[in-house]
Amino acid sequence: MNSQLQGYKLASIIIHWFTAAALVYLFINGEQMAEATSELRGELMHSHVFWGVVLGVPLLLRVAWRYKQGFAATPPQHWSLELLAKIVKIGLLVCIAGAVLTGTALPWAKGKDLVIGSLIIPSFMTTNEVLAQTLEVMHELFSHLWIPLLVLHVLGALKHVLMDKDGVLSSMFKPNKDGL
Question: Which among 171, 163, 159, 150 has a CA at the least distance from the CA of 72?
Answer without folding.
Answer: 171
